[in-house]
Amino acid sequence: MPGDTISVGVLGYRFMGRAHANALARLPMFFPDAPDVERHTLVGRDEDALSDAADRLGFAHTATDWESVVDDVDVFYNLGPNHLHADPSIAALEAGTHVLCEKPLARKLAEAERMRAAAAASDAVAACAFNYRFVPAIRYAKGLIADGKLGEIRQVRGRYLQDWLVDPDTPWSWRNDAALAGSGALGDLGAHTVDLARFLVGEQVGAVETVSGTLRTFVNERPVPDSDERRPVTVDDAYTAQVEYASGAIGTFEASRVADGHKNDHTIEVHGSKGSLRFSLERLNELAFKGEHHRGYETILVTDESDPYVDHWWPPGHVLGWEHTFVHENYEFLSAVAADETFHPSFEDAYQVQRVLDAVERADERGERVALR
Amino acid sequence: MPGDTISVGVLGYRFMGRAHANALARLPMFFPDAPDVERHTLVGRDEDALSDAADRLGFAHTATDWESVVDDVDVFYNLGPNHLHADPSIAALEAGTHVLCEKPLARKLAEAERMRAAAAASDAVAACAFNYRFVPAIRYAKGLIADGKLGEIRQVRGRYLQDWLVDPDTPWSWRNDAALAGSGALGDLGAHTVDLARFLVGEQVGAVETVSGTLRTFVNERPVPDSDERRPVTVDDAYTAQVEYASGAIGTFEASRVADGHKNDHTIEVHGSKGSLRFSLERLNELAFKGEHHRGYETILVTDESDPYVDHWWPPGHVLGWEHTFVHENYEFLSAVAADETFHPSFEDAYQVQRVLDAVERADERGERVALR
Amino acid sequence: MPGDTISVGVLGYRFMGRAHANALARLPMFFPDAPDVERHTLVGRDEDALSDAADRLGFAHTATDWESVVDDVDVFYNLGPNHLHADPSIAALEAGTHVLCEKPLARKLAEAERMRAAAAASDAVAACAFNYRFVPAIRYAKGLIADGKLGEIRQVRGRYLQDWLVDPDTPWSWRNDAALAGSGALGDLGAHTVDLARFLVGEQVGAVETVSGTLRTFVNERPVPDSDERRPVTVDDAYTAQVEYASGAIGTFEASRVADGHKNDHTIEVHGSKGSLRFSLERLNELAFKGEHHRGYETILVTDESDPYVDHWWPPGHVLGWEHTFVHENYEFLSAVAADETFHPSFEDAYQVQRVLDAVERADERGERVALR
Amino acid sequence: MPGDTISVGVLGYRFMGRAHANALARLPMFFPDAPDVERHTLVGRDEDALSDAADRLGFAHTATDWESVVDDVDVFYNLGPNHLHADPSIAALEAGTHVLCEKPLARKLAEAERMRAAAAASDAVAACAFNYRFVPAIRYAKGLIADGKLGEIRQVRGRYLQDWLVDPDTPWSWRNDAALAGSGALGDLGAHTVDLARFLVGEQVGAVETVSGTLRTFVNERPVPDSDERRPVTVDDAYTAQVEYASGAIGTFEASRVADGHKNDHTIEVHGSKGSLRFSLERLNELAFKGEHHRGYETILVTDESDPYVDHWWPPGHVLGWEHTFVHENYEFLSAVAADETFHPSFEDAYQVQRVLDAVERADERGERVALR
Question: φ and ψ at D309, to 5 degrees?
Answer without folding.
Answer: 70, -15
